[in-house]
Amino acid sequence: MTIASQHPLPRHALDFVVRKDDLRQVEFVESSVHAESPLEDGQILIRVDQFAFTSNNVTYAAFGEAMHYWDFFPAQEGWGRIPVWGFGDVVQSRNDAIQVGQRYYGYFPMSDYVLMQPDRINNSGFVDAVAHRQALHPLYNQYLATAHDPGYVAAREHEIALLRPLFMTSFMIDDFLEDNQFFGARTVILSSASSKTAYGLAFLLAQRGMEQCEVIGLTSPSNVKFTESLGCYHRVIPYDQIDSLSAALPVVYVDMSGNAKVRSTLHHHFQENLTYSCAVGGTHWDQREGEGRLPGARPTLFFAPAQIKKRAAEWGMAGVMSRYTAAWTKFLTPLAGWMNITHGRGPRAVEQVYLDMLEGRSRPDQGHILSVSE
Hints:
26% of the residues lie in helices and 27% in strands. It is built from eight helices and 18 strands. It starts with 13 loop residues before the first strand and ends with a strand. Strands 3, 5, 6, 7, 8, 9, 10, 17 and 18 form a nine-stranded mixed beta sheet that branches. Strands 13-12-11-14-15-16 form a six-stranded parallel beta sheet, with helices on both faces. The chain is of the alpha/beta class.
């Protein structure tokens, strides 16, 4: 395993990169974008101030090729830059509509700086129109100005970075399941139930009441008590007790882990009563080997932007965002009761959190806020 930051690093602007074919290999490389980078007309330079790192970012790496996550911030051949959600400040601008000092929330690389080409600029924010991002989903290319963002609360920046993008996925899965009448089931089973995306979905599902939807969480034995303490699962079951669940009634499985063994066990246990198998995450990124044809519904990858696009056509994007903002505001309230936010600055801190998350060593009650800058 190559870990460049175990050696002295020149403190130039840095990019954190990982080997696409071996996620355990990491390096910090000198970036071509730095504080004095010359800008072309219309461009801005953003200093990435802070970003969240969660199991969702491990999913971005695990599905980097299949879902084009590597394409947002290109790196040298064979290496990738993992996208993260966070906040950045404009430190240079050659765009008359954007001033130095403006702060934005959005999708950034794990780097000191990022160069952008803003387009469709208004008080709410802008879209990065850099050429290589135009074929990618526009949801990830939007940057929100904190000064005009109705979902922004300065005192809750850490929670926003950690959970807002995950909660959008949770929100759209909840909507997707309702949109499809829960595929004839009244029970939803979530793996990696202690993860933040699963928690957001369980929070939303629990609002419906057990008479409409029983929410069952699957987690490792060591995380059972914590997951139960979240208060939104009707039952929490260790992975090794799946066979204790009654297979007589239809269920929907939402797979946040990507663990092929767990998926196979559930499919073989419920057989045709597993009416929908929704693949979302890859927290168990190293246990994704194929298991052949499974009984029950065929596992189907969930892509939140597709459901957003559908609802935007039906409700308008303003309608989507108003519903989401209302749910997000309600979701923010209980977070202070269980999430311990930790801060890390500099290459060594970033590397350690990444490797701990990759190997499953992070505690579920932790929320990591990082910065490549010291």
